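Hi there, hope your week has been kind to you so far. Do you reckon you could talk me through the fold, stretch by stretch? I've dropped the whole record in just underneath, so have a look:
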Amino acid sequence: MKSKRLLLLAIAVVAAGAALAAGLGSSSSNAAPRATARVAVVTDIGGLNDKGFNHLAYVGLQRAQSKLGVDGRVFITNTAEDRLPNLRSAAQQGYGLVIGVGFLMFDPLDKLAPAVPNTKFAGVDVPYALLASKPANVRGLVFKEQEAGYLVGYIAGLEIKRHPYKGKQVVSGVGANKVPAIIHFLTGYAAGAKKANPKVTVLINYANDPTFADQAKCKVTTQNQISRGSGVVFEAAGQCGLGGLTAAKQSGVWGIGVDADQSFLGPHILTSATKKVDVAVYQTIQAYAQNPDGFTGGSDQVFSVKNGAVGYGKLSPKLSKADRAYILARVSNIAKQIASGKIVPPSGT
């Protein structure tokens, strides 16, 4: 009798377990699948082949599509008048996160975001403090460009000290236009060059290109600097700067790229001030995809040397082995000091 009761109890336990498993299976199959995050990137003028800023933002979106499975789309801005309509179209088409690329997105975001509070926005190079309407659905994605500028300025200062150009120790920087990010780059560049070489002369000029895409303007500005003795030219100018880097190649002087590692342009590229817009865009999309409702605005997310989002690119293969070793040992130490806060490069703003 006792063994019979035990047998019945065992059967009941198994049946209960089966019922529970069935219930769990039913619950799982009936659960609503998590919606795919929909994300739009709105470029600034210059297109996806600008070899810098817009391209990097697109790379970040592509990475998110591949790794996170997001539904992504790019809206191309061809003229200044396209910025606001592109942002609005992305919101109207149901993209839950819309990322505007470039400082000049601040005004369109300021106008649009309060009208569509259910859409989340992020602005690359758009400091939240600039938004007069203080929309709670906008997050600024800002960089300490002065840190990257300082590092490449330090490299430029070391190189021109070891190898003066036509007997002169002169380096220079070109900005497309006076916007905060470019001012940061060039202010840091000048300070870094002086840190490496107190005797260096640093020329800073602007091409006055509001489009950031007029290569002819940067080329002329750079040629003028080279005629004044500059042996290293830094182009903090987006697509405009490609014209300046061409001038450097044609004149036989060093060029320094910006945003992306532009060493692919040729061995005349001494290095590049890297600003990893792709990392910022990917991390922002990742945060949104993981918790759309919890994605908050109303502040800035800051990217720096410390968190690996700004720095310097490859050194030119034209450098001698001795020069490469000399530069790397010293600039690596400077980068550590920046990351630790021992060196705080000036921003100029």
Summary: Residues 1-33 have pLDDT under 50 and may be disordered. The longest strand covers residues 269-275. The chain is about 45% helix and 20% strand.
